[in-house]
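TOPIC: backbone geometry
CONTENTS: sequence, structure tokens:
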Amino acid sequence: MELLRIQEIEKRFVNHLALDNVSMAIPENSIYGLLGPNGAGKTTLIRIINRITAPDKGRIFLNGREMKPEDIHEIGYLPEERGLYKKMKVGEQALYLARLKGLSKRDALKKLKYWFDKFEIQAWWDKKVEELSKGMQQKVQFIITILHEPKLLIFDEPFSGFDPINANLLKQEILELKKKGSTIIFSTHNMGSVEELCDHITLINNAKNLLEGPIDKIRHEYKSNIYEITYKGEYQKLESALNEHYQIIEQKKINGYNGVRIKLLHQTNENELLSLIIPTVEIISFNEIIPSMNDVFIKAVNENKK
């Protein structure tokens, strides 16, 4: 079931077309990656979903009906550019922003205490925001974003400013939010995080949808018939066993063993490859190389330039 449907959105700024007929469907209780190079139109789309700006054409549906202004309370948005007031105390500001989201003072204080304890940041309550590091400010803003338990969460580069330990902490919290029923739009340039967290993705480039679908399906669609083999034996014997249907594209050591990457050419398959090399060497491992999301991102964007 869909939580959010974006239908044929178009947005133009003076002489710049920021979004050109962009559509996507975000399944309920999923983590949805919104990807694209700088300037692709991601931030514009996020601002439209948040009703910060309006589309020139197109519509957005939440829970099957067209979004209304009051639906903004169902969204929690963590922008890439942080928006905390530098001179205010952390606790005072967190409480103020929680009240703006519709929480009573009592509920807000109870929830803030829970999250400040969980993140072990109780000592920051009476500090001014400007006294905190970028990563510390990010933790506070993350808490404020999720505090009112919205149906839809939008995280734009949420790990910016975090060291690996705190980035991992935040990833676990995002997965836990999904487990509890949240739907999350996740925008980042870190493709490793996309692979760890996302169920589906849309890749936008030059204002248009370039790719859309389940992340595993997209990665398999971009595979290139390349297999990585580790083995015991002589490289020359393995090489001489191959014919014109196979191309060795890399030779290296893998976990202490000899290793090669072989590309299958023409009409052939992995069983035929194995039948050729098994008589010549002892196979330790044999794996098809599925491209990473980083590889997919680069290839898709570069192909789009042609």
Notes: The chain has two domains: 2-220, 224-289.
